[in-house]
Specification:
Elements (H helix, E strand, L loop, with lengths): L17 H22 L7 H11 L18 H19 L13 H11 L24 H6 L2 H8 L4
The structure holds zinc ion.
The site of zinc ion (ZN) has 9 residues, from helix 5.
């Protein structure tokens, strides 16, 4: 069974309650442990994909997709935002990692599997989980996407939040 990114409180990127943020981080860290255990044996995902995601999830400093931010927090609100930006960056990469020319392409199916593992919040922005995200226009304001530094490409890939 594939690990599923945990449910989060509404508008988690704008959350200001440290206790709620800390609880969300705890759920995300458990998900990360499940993800790493799953990646160690996931037959539906290529060895190359497993290696890329595992180095990112374990927080390898030189992870090509960016290391999971594992700084133990005096500021859980900031830590939660950092984790959501990490997730947004990985999602941003995987949504079109299959859509390249040449031998570097990943399989469509494995990319879709990883999108599922990262979670598909229903009725909310796929990146920041904002519930009031307006189609299209949200991407220029999305806090998680802005932090990844690539708003325009995300809008081109997704068209509208789903
Ligand atoms: Zn957003």
């Amino acid at each position: 069974m594939t690990p599923s990114f945990p449910a989060l409180p509404p508008d988690p990127f704008g959350l200001e309650d440290p206790a709620v943020a800390l609880a969300a981080i705890g759920r995300i860290q458990r998900w990360r442990d499940e993800l790493r255990a799953w990646l160690a044996r996931a037959p539906e995902v290529s060895a190359r994909m497993r290696a890329l995601l595992d180095e990112a999830a374990r927080g390898a400093p030189d992870a090509r997709l960016g290391p999971f931010p594992d700084a133990p927090g005096a500021d859980p609100v900031r830590d939660l935002r950092a984790v959501l930006v990490w997730r947004a960056r990985v999602l941003h990469w995987v949504v079109d990692a299959w859509d390249v020319i040449g031998d570097d392409a990943f399989g469509v199916e494995e990319c879709a599997t990883i999108e599922g593992v990262l979670g598909r919040p229903a009725g909310a922005c796929a990146y920041c989980f904002a519930r009031d995200a307006l189609p299209g226009a949200h991407f220029t304001r999305c806090a998680a996407l802005r932090a990844t530094g690539d708003v325009a490409r995300a809008a081109a890939v997704w068209g509208a939040p789903r």
